[in-house]
Amino acid sequence: LALIIDAQQLVINNDPLTYEGPYTDDMIGGEWRYDTVHFNEAGLIEHAIRWDESIVVMMNDL
């Protein structure tokens, strides 16, 4: 997993049109996912909140 994250960060750091999204790797278990893969209602809400926060940061940096 670390190799994937490192590769993603490399792209983000070297492409001015690529922006970092929210960290969601911690959203595991029944609190966030109904089948260990797909987000349940709480997971979708939290995912949206995190995307909102990431977009606000990106827009403020423009």
How does this model look, in words?
The chain is mostly helical and 62 residues long. The protein has a domain at 22-62. 55% of the residues lie in helices and 0% in strands. It contains 2 helices and no strands. The chain has helices spanning 2-14, 41-61. The longest helix is centred in the C-terminal third of the chain and has 21 residues, at 41-61. The mean pLDDT is 95.
List keywords for this structure.
62 residues; flat
Strand count, sense and barrel status of the largest sheet are:
none
- How much is the average pLDDT? 95
* C-alpha end-to-end distance: 30 Å
Helix content: 40-55%
The secondary structure category is mainly alpha
**Count of DSSP H/I helices:** 2
Short description:
The protein contains two helices and no strands. The protein has 62 residues and is an all-alpha fold. The chain has a domain at 22-62.
Q: Strands, helices and their partners?
A:
Layout: H1 2-14, H2 41-61
